[in-house]
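does this look right to u?? flavin mononucleotide version
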Amino acid sequence: MPDQSIRPLLQNLEQQGELVRVSKEVDPEQNMSAVEWKNYAENGKSTLFTTIKGHAGWQACSQILADRRKWSIGLGIDEHDLLPEMSRRVKNPIKPVMVDKAKAPCKEVILKGEAASLYDLPAMIVSEHDGGRFIASGMGWIKDPDTGISNISIHRQHIMAKDKTGFLMLPRQARRIYDKFCKINKPMPVAMVVGAHPAIWFGSAYTTGFGIDEMDVSGGLLGEAVRMVKCETIDVEVPAEAELIIEGEVLPNHTEPEGPFGEVPGTYAEAGISEIFKVKAITRRKDPVFYAIHCGFPATDTQATTGLGIEIATWDHLRNVEGGMEILDIRSLTVSGLMAIVIKLRPRVEGQAKTALMAALSGPYLHPKLAIAVDDDIDASDLRQVMWSMTTRVHAEKDVVLIPNTRVFALDNISPVVPGLSSFQRVGTKWLIDATKPSVARPEERARFERAMPRNFDKVRLEDFLP
Ligand SMILES: Cc1cc2nc3c(=O)[nH]c(=O)nc-3n(C[C@H](O)[C@H](O)[C@H](O)COP(=O)(O)O)c2cc1C
Ligand SMILES: [Mn+2]
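got this back:
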């Protein structure tokens, strides 16, 4: 029975030299965010903070799932096999099971009413101009009042008082359910869950059909049922082995000023309004690890989490486009704030790359607005090689295509908001760049674009010659 908490990930990262423990005191309002961000940007490492000013008894982790390597450690899947294997597992859902409260570490400490304070949590001021401390790693469990089916999605929470936060809902499934509560003017019960197994985290961020419980998907990824326990003050079930649960409700037909907040594209979402979450209880482990996720300028867990979802969804989506398409890899570029995607493929006939690119720009996720196709000899994760393809293999007049007036990602500040609609409905220009070689149907022309690589590149081993 594998541990379904966040802890095996932290242990495995540390064992494999991917995580650094910081025991020197850090301050969540002044320096914690810069330390974890720089430790990843400069050293490629995750951080575990063990001494946090004003938060004795807490630890906090950050940048623990910022790239494929860390995801593969977290899910126990070979890095090179990540997309096909995750795609296979999410299609084989396993339903969650209930366990007793006594078997739920998330109930080791139960704080209700006055005793429950958000000020206890080591939530950071993440980006320079953020409006305050935010929790951005909370997975929100809600139930559709018509069907009783759980929906799980992540929502940023601007901490506004000890028992009150913002609750930002983009126009997706949680908002659709919230609208039902607004119609009957009843508060929507919500449990915010912080810190769990990467499979649980991935499921909550993954876009699935409306009416599908994301924990079925997480169970598939885990290879066993997610173990759930009942909340104390609301009729919601949450993962028993989580670090922290914030029970509460989102008020109906009510908004207040919220933000600004450094967001997934790497720019700020301006101050605006959002719905309001009121705390009823906090339950947690006695030695909790807070998931101090970094949301802001890339590369962070935030881009890598949604990026992996985009890659898997696009991987599946492209299977349905023109039989026999040879898709070799897909990379949603974290450095682009998820707005660029690279498709690696071997074009069998002319025009195939552009066909794939059009599909990549109209999949289940709105984020990608720039899609680039590279050929079978290019490492799609290496921006130097992608850029090399974009100069040597692109005839801009023929290979760059702009598609104006299309829907784009809600937080893409360069694309205007649709007049009269909610501030998250934007239109922009999608564009595609075909940086593949001529197709395999034209071998002679294809050969003209071969990379000029060192003689016997594949055979010569550097280790045999270096001292
Ligand atoms: C770190 C992180 C923070 C997120 N914050 C928000 C948020 O504040 N509001 C929101 O609507 N979606 C946010 N999302 C995206 C949703 O969690 C995601 O789109 C989810 O799949 C939506 O679930 P649904 O399909 O059930 O609506 C965030 C995702 C991540 C990875
Ligand atoms: Mn959903």
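Residues 81-284 form a domain with the Pnp Oxidase; Chain A fold (CATH 2.30.110.10). idk if thats expected tbh
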